[in-house]
Amino acid sequence: MKVEIWSDVACPWCFVGKRRFEQALDRFAGKDGVEVVYRPYQLVPDAPETATPHRAWLADRYGPQSVAMDARVTELGKGEGIDFDFDTALHANTFLGHRLLHLAESEYGAAVQGVLKEALLTAHFSRGVDVGDRTQLTEIAVAAGLDRDRVTAYLAGDEGTDAVQAQLAEGREIGITAVPTFVFEGKWAVQGGQEADTFLRVLEQVAAETAAEPEAPHGDSCADGACAV
């Protein structure tokens, strides 16, 4: 089974959803046959290259309710083992991060891409790292298992840009409008940071549906706990 997770590096619900999905996958009897791949999505594609404080950016965008928004996701994060630190978090353009994730998948495989995704989310939300900065991205990538020289050369040029742009366009074409969105076998879509039990039911249902009717189209979506544009 292939699961494509459309998400952004700067999406708190994507972090929560990742942890919950991983909990479900660990409980899924067929987990060894599941390939998880991360696909790019940018909540703020026009974010400037120079990072700014997250708190100020969110307040400017959503007003007074931004404090409650951060507080809610911080509390939810604790239950998933995530230490959200919005006081130090930086609002940054995530395109370079998506390019790195593409490099990781294409040259190192889905497992290494998953390690890098976790590292980028942690750096952004828990360590106050500027995930739009090439130097800091390089250190994150190397720690995740990528070759330093390869990453340095890759980020210095435009390699991977067209591929990521194409994947972003693909997301728009198939109707991805909020993240995280989990697409199972290219047919079933679940949106939002659902509870682990929900993800487990979906995994089991997709496995059963695929075994019974591998060519039959089917759709299933939900929309709670997602980051929307």
TrEMBL record:
Source species, domain of life: Bacteria
Example GO molecular function: isomerase activity
Domain DSBA-like thioredoxin: 3-203
Pfam families xref list: DSBA
InterPro entries: DSBA-like_thioredoxin_dom (IPR001853), Thioredoxin-like_sf (IPR036249)
Keyword terms: Isomerase
Full protein name: Putative DsbA family dithiol-disulfide isomerase
Source organism: Kitasatospora gansuensis
